Amino acid sequence: MRYAHAVADVRAAERELMARLPEGALMQRAAFGLATVAADMLRDAGSVYGSRVALLVGVGDNGGDALYAGALLAGRGVAVHALLADPDRAHEGGLSALRDAGGRIVADAAVLDQADLVVDGLLGIGGRGGLRGEFARLAEAAHESGAPILAVDLPSGIEADTGEVSGPAVRADVTVTFGTHKPGLFVDPGASHAGIVEFVDIGLEFPPSVEPVLENLQVQDVRALLPAPGRSSHKYSRGVVGLAVGSERYPGAALLAVGAALRSGVGAVRYSGPVDVVSSYPEVIAGGGKVQAWVVGSGLGRDDEAVRRLLNVLATDVPVVVDADGLRLLPRKAFERSAPTIITPHAGEAAALLDVTAEQIEGQRLEYVRRLAQSYDATVVLKGPLTLIAGPQTSRVRVNTHAGPVLATAGSGDVLAGIIGGLLAGGLSPYDAASAGAYLHGATGLLAARSGPVAAGDLVASLPLAWHNIQE
């Protein structure tokens, strides 16, 4: 599991650690990690010795990290030039170290045009709002130079706690983050500015009372969650999932969701609807019956019959996944159920549920996924390039980074709903079913893409191998 912590908690952990270390030791740890990544980037591009690095230096510790890292690089034969956004407030110790190592402080941004690497140390995790004044000018000049950009802890101009981008901001190729990940590196639009994120352990520790803001499941975490049949298992003990999806107008949604559910680890699948799914999947049990979870909404339509099917499922006492058309038909006020609910909106559907714009959702995804979970007393899967999962009883959010743009294809959401429903029926909690389901969904896309352009049916076909790879 990878974790991201709030800025206030990072600051507290840094203070506690600095009290136990010699003065300046923590910054030296960060600078060494930063210089190591910078040297790796230069080596990959050709050579460390004789290369040219430009530092964009702001104020405070972020600029100090950049300056001390620059001094280490200068000691390895790199020509290092530092541009100071605010010369009167630059880190004095870092400036002295850079000069002593042979680095130069310059005022002419033309050095960026000759740079093999630009290090962004303008603003750190305490920055608020977009870049302004000289900070914005230097960032723009760095982008225009075409040199790769390495960000210190967080691309300047990104809100560390939320990933919001409210003005000009650096777009990095690589970001080195220290001690813990920052939420803004996992949440769009900030995450799209971070490039490849490299983690440097500087020894920060967080007490049990301090919870991370974000969790990012890794393959071993998903492996531990996936249900596995035992020697005494039978089809009913493994779980039965029901699907009230598809319609005469949208039969494909039923086939995709059912196909995914069949490959989600459950013992049986029941289908309730007008689509002939048995011809394609003879394993399916047609009609109603006892289930451990329901999936409703995919391809449901929005007529009176669709409303009836949705309300019938919501009236049950088992967990329910509501997707697609079902989201458009949900009551706009919190509805009471005796069992958990999972909703799976994209930005447009989330906007309709909260009566805001899709642009607001995309600009503040962390804020709105939490608001949805509270407003609808549901576990929320806010779909996107980085899918967020939030529950109604906690402020902690999970993020799925194991995916790709190939999932942006018609029917992909139907597959995801089927996977999550199957995992729910198999005994996972709503939070875990949504999290593991999003990871599996992403894994199917990565596998399917190996053969070329991907259709949703390819995701269904890739599920068994994706499951196998995670277990192995």
From TrEMBL:
Record's keyword annotation contains NADP: yes
Pfam families to which the protein is assigned, alphabetical: Carb_kinase, YjeF_N
Binding site for AMP: 383-387, 413
Keyword field: ATP-binding, Isomerase, Lyase, Metal-binding, Multifunctional enzyme, NAD, NADP, Nucleotide-binding, Potassium
Residues forming coiled coils: none
Presence of the UniProt keyword ATP-binding in the record: yes
Binding site for (6S)-NADPHX: 61-65, 124-130, 153, 253, 299, 346, 414
GO terms (BP aspect): metabolite repair; nicotinamide nucleotide metabolic process
Reaction equation(s) it catalyzes: (6S)-NADPHX + ADP = AMP + phosphate + NADPH + H(+); (6S)-NADHX + ADP = AMP + phosphate + NADH + H(+); (6R)-NADPHX = (6S)-NADPHX; (6R)-NADHX = (6S)-NADHX
Domain YjeF C-terminal: 218-470
Cofactor: Mg(2+); K(+)
Stored InterPro entries: Carbohydrate_kinase_pred_CS, CARKD, Nnr, Ribokinase-like, YjeF_N_dom, YjeF_N_dom_sf
Domain YjeF N-terminal intervals: 10-210
One annotated GO molecular function: ATP binding
E.C. code: 4.2.1.136, 5.1.99.6
Record-listed K(+) binding positions: 62, 120, 156
Cofactor note: Binds 1 potassium ion per subunit.
Purpose: Bifunctional enzyme that catalyzes the epimerization of the S- and R-forms of NAD(P)HX and the dehydration of the S-form of NAD(P)HX at the expense of ADP, which is converted to AMP. This allows the repair of both epimers of NAD(P)HX, a damaged form of NAD(P)H that is a result of enzymatic or heat-dependent hydration.
Assembly and binders: Homotetramer.
HAMAP family: NADHX_dehydratase, NADHX_epimerase
Similarity comment: family membership: Belongs to the NnrD/CARKD family. Belongs to the NnrE/AIBP family.
Protein name per its UniProtKB record: Bifunctional NAD(P)H-hydrate repair enzyme
Native species: Actinospica acidithermotolerans
